[in-house]
Amino acid sequence: MGKKQNGRIELVYGALDMLILQTLRWGPAHGHGIAKSIERTSDDALKVDHGSLYPALQRLLQEKWITAGWGVSENKQRAKYYRLTPAGRRKLAAETSRWERFVEAITGVLKPTVEEGER
Amino acid sequence: MSARREFSKLEQVVRHGRPTGDLEEEIRTHLEMQEQENREAGMTPEEAHYSAQRQFGNVTRAMERSREAWSWRFLEVLLQDLRFGARQLRNNKSFAAVAVLTFALGIGATTAVFSVVHGVLLQPLPYGEPDRLVDLRETEVAPGNYPLSGPDYIDWQAQNRTLAGSALYEWPETMNASNGGEPVTATVVHAQANLFRVLGVRPQAGRDFSTGEDAEGRNQVAILSYGFWQRHFGGASVLGQGMILNGKTYTIVGVMPRWFRFLMPADLWTPLDMGPKTMGARGDHSFNAVARLKPGVTLSAARADLLGISQRLEKQYPDQNEKTYAVLRPLDDVLTGGWKTPLLILLGAVVLVLLVACVNVANLQLARASTRHREMAVRASLGAGRGRLLRQMLTESVLLALAGAALGVAFAYWCVQLLQSVKSLPIPLVKPIGVDGTVLLFAIGVSVLAGVLFGLAPALQFSERSLNAELHAGTQSVLSAGHGRQMLRDGLVVVEIALTLALLAGAGLLLRSFAHLRNSETGVDAHNVLTTSFNLPEATYPDQTARRRFYDQLLARVTASPAVAAAAVSSEIPMRGGSNGYIKVDGATDPALANQLVGWNFITPDYFRVLRIPLLKGRGLTATDAEQAAVNTQKLDELFKKAQGSGNVQVPPDITFVAVISQATERTFWKGQDAVGRTYEWNGAKVTVVGVAGDVKEYGLRAKIMPQAYMPLPVVLTYGGGGAHLTLKTRIAPEAVIPTLRREAKALDATLAPDRLQTLDEVIAEDTQDVSFQAFLLGAFAALALVLAAIGLYGVMAYLVNQRTREIGIRMALGAEPGNVLSLVMLRGTRLTLLGMVIGAAAAFGLGRAMSSVLYGVKASDPLTFACVALLLAAVALAASLIPGCRAMKVDPIIALRYD
């Protein structure tokens, strides 16, 4: 698979976990729904390989950040729904702030270079 | 959402497990959804299908990876933790060594004691359906349970409807066994032919006794114990071979399995002659019996059945069977009943030791934790969750505990081997004792529990808040961080000291009991006394005359040696108990006396001299008394033989005896009056009291003094067979006389082997063996706990000094004297010790109460014991905090302030 397709960014390992947690903040969702939601909210900029979603979901289940149970989809299909646990909510908060610090730091590092170039 | 309501209960459960079974369905649904979406976006069905597939990627791989997430993660994390833990421990070898060793001692001791408890108390008897086995005894007029009368047993056996089978057996007899060569002594149990069938065991080689072999003339067959077979036949094939027991040839028909033991230790078994001659008179109680309940019959039903028979016999034989009723007890209780309390006390004590050990390791962990705090803080900030850190800490401490357990089990194995090699272990060994699967499981369980429990305390210290604070506090603060940590460590030391005090007090109480027992009055002077016993075979010593000749010659030969000051032959020796019965004092009216048992001892005149038993009144027994007794017993014996079965025998008035009685007999039967010259009736014959001797502990140091009567030896040589004890008062160390004794005995009769050659001191020590065993073990546990507690206290104080080096430096720079610094440390140590001792005193009191049934001569709250152990503990604790205290005094302010 190509590195970049139509300006889409491939996800770094671990980031998918965060995105899933973030998606589930709005309520339970099934796998397909999560994939669509990630793509939609990032204006299709983030590419989710649907297949990689499932191992990630299992990982999150194991950490007890999400739970799963069978339900019925909008189209009356039997589907498995995932839901955020309180631990998952805490994790998401921690990860978000960590991410923000990280971005801040990286931005801080990158900025001077840009300024230098402008001068 | 409606979907949420449909979460079924089952799936609530399943979702915590491994929900991968339905992964396939989930992915299929996903693909269908995408397909539908694609169709709605205008794709052809075929296009929609392939596009969905493409978007999803490799389905199989996705499933594989999903499953892997479950199956390997736990193991991976564990391995990671283990690897990391092992590396941590390797980097800190001295810590690891101390911790593992401490755990090993604690777990090893606990496992060793548990293997004994498991072997003795928890395991069922190693016989077939042991729940149905019962021990049979009888009551008598005197209170208590007694051995059985042969004729009573025969009647029970014939009339009961509740027993599937029963077997009579005698107390072990020491016999001279030979295989043509040098004779050895063998402990022989004569038993009814069906003994092994009743127990549900079979010989490992050869055959069992067959029905009918328990009759005179047919009973010269023997089954060997495994040990005897190995020792004397080297394990060679022996079936069908003959061996000589007390002059008669027996055919070896079987060998019992190695594990087989039954109540009393035995080298071999032969069938008991069940004929009337051996069964004896109805009033004689000298047999043991074991029975098996019929399937489905309860113990109480069998009791009622046998009680009915006993009551009928009581009516039928009012003279011999007054108040003589059957007593049935589960065989297991009889075997282990007396050991329950002492063993549970030992187990309790060793668990306390384990706790002290664990507390010590926890304390070590805490000390180490404070140095690892920054490491933990860094790891936490790098994203390790608190749970993950906790798990890492726990993995480490369980790793330590398991390493300790491995070493500990080896230690326990060695202890159990040692126990088994002890010749006369004062615990019942009917059931095999060993480190088996259950014991191993126990050890592993205990160590994991210990690891988790005491790894948790230090691990919980890492609250996230303190971790953050730690990271920010770049350097060690002046007043040292971790006040809470220090509190916890102090608390642990207090617990350690409390536990140790309780253990010390328990050991002290037992030691005092033991000392009390050993110093208690035995009534004899055991110094330089050698004892042994002989069993003259009936074949070569058929009657009283032959037996008397042997013992007279033996006495003459040994007293000829200049090393021997005096020698005597007696039917009993102190501590070992003996036969007893009832007397009728002429003119006595107290009905209670009819229930009073009197012990018999039949002696040669010098018995009192050999044992230095004081003659308080009248005279001792003389050679003339012996002559008269020999003649009269002969007459009496013939009378009884003639009257066999016809009940009462009229003893002519010219058959009389003389006896020396003990002080207790005089006090009990003559109520303080002078008994010398008074008479009583014994076996229908008149006995005149010629003297009163001091009381002797015939039944052991802990038994009450019992009335005792001494009569001349020939009496017992007539009707009691050829067994008797020889006692020598020696002028040199008694052990040095053993060769002389052996030589003289051999010169008299080479087929005889002197049995149980012991000094009287050893005989007395044997009587207190159980107490000394318990006192020794508890003492060892207490010593172990004391050492551990001292290390624990030292550790805490040393750590304190270390942590406060800067503070101490500042204080000293500001003018504090070294004495002030010392008292700063010592005060703290003393405070912890005192607090621990107050709590420990309460625990010790509780332990003492639990132990009261095994204490002798001391109260559970014995103030002297408590004061002594408290002093000991205080001294050790003081020493343990003095060392760090002195180090604190030597702190150089300059260096201390430059610290960091």
Care to describe what's here?
The complex is a heterodimer of chains A (119) and B (900). Chain A has helices at 15-24, 31-41, 50-62, 86-118; strands at 9-10, 29-30, 46-47, 66-72, 78-84. Chain A is of the alpha+beta class. In chain A, the strands form two sheets. Chain A has a three-stranded antiparallel β-sheet. In chain A, a hairpin with a 5-residue loop joins β4 and β5. The longest helix of chain B has 42 residues, at 340-381. In chain B, the strands form four sheets. In chain B, strands 15, 16, 17, 18, 19, 20, 21 and 22 form an eight-stranded mixed β-sheet that branches. In chain B, strands 4-5-10-7-9-8 form a six-stranded mixed barrel. Helices cover 54% and strands 15% of the residues of chain B. Chain B is built from 30 helices and 24 strands. Chain B has 900 residues and is of the alpha+beta class. The interface between A and B is large, with 34 and 40 residues.
Which terms summarize this structure?
heterodimer, A: 119 residues, alpha+beta, three-stranded antiparallel sheet, two-stranded parallel sheet, 5 strands, B: 900 residues, eight-stranded mixed sheet, six-stranded mixed barrel, 24 strands
